[in-house]
């Protein structure tokens, strides 16, 4: 991780890595969008990536997915060979039934059965013979998740997968994604604009700003209110400040508004020996 990243916890040294990126750089013409980025993601770890519009989140995800061959740098990019990508639009093949969309390119035995089971996992029971055009946007996105996870990927890359959905459907998709991740245990990198989505889903949140990962914080929410709500509010304020969003002061908790996420509630696997590197002035 770059020296100027604001980090609130030291990650365990001996954890198994799903992703290891060193010195990743991407330029478009003379413009450097990703500037010598370092990142490690542990096996099964759920990481959210926030950043202002145009900060390079999708560019970073595309580089990890192997969809960008113009990434430069002297460093290395190690990602598992079994990875799946989900985008904001479901990108289903309209001429194929759902079961054939999900099983498309799937190797091995019982391909149709596995695809049907994956559709059931996302709540689309008895819909395997439907066509994509017969589904709502949320249902199509569930098929995209089924297609991604039927491969049991070690890494799931998701680029604003719920960005086009209404608020209620998005909440349902959060619950579904959480359940699917418990089931399949992939490492996840979720690109999102939605600070609350990041807080509720991720174990760790990054912010990409001016080509660098400037924030890297663990998230561990207490199980019960009101401690949970307080911690969510505190992390939200912290992230919004680092995203450059003006925040109204909160009158009853003025001292907390500048504070980082609570060290004491940080996830056990990311809370050892807290260190903090302030961004260079
Ligand atoms: N193929 C390309 N050619 C030139 N510039 C590009 C190309 N792809 C991306 N960029 C530029 O790189 C920058 C980062 O784009 P990217 O899509 O990664 O940002 P983002 O953080 O995902 O944005 P958003 O949140 O708005 O989706 C933008 O300024 C964009 O114009």
TrEMBL record:
Q: Tell me its EC number(s), please.
A: 3.6.3.-
Q: Which InterPro entries match?
A: AAA+_ATPase (IPR003593), ABC_transporter-like_ATP-bd (IPR003439), ABC_transporter-like_CS (IPR017871), ABC_transporter_ATP-bind (IPR050166), P-loop_NTPase (IPR027417)
**EC class (word):** hydrolase
Ranges of residues in domain ABC transporter: 19-235
Q: What Pfam families does the record tag this protein with?
A: ABC_tran (PF00005)
Which keywords fit this entry according to its UniProt record? ATP-binding, Cell membrane, Hydrolase, Membrane, Nucleotide-binding, Translocase, Transport
Give one GO term, molecular function aspect.
Answer: ATP binding
Q: Which residue stretches belong to region Disordered?
A: 249-281
| Polar residues bias locations | 254-265
Identify its protein family: Belongs to the ABC transporter superfamily.
Protein name, entry field = Aliphatic sulfonates import ATP-binding protein SsuB
Q: What is the lineage of its organism?
A: Bacteria, Pseudomonadati, Pseudomonadota, Betaproteobacteria, Burkholderiales
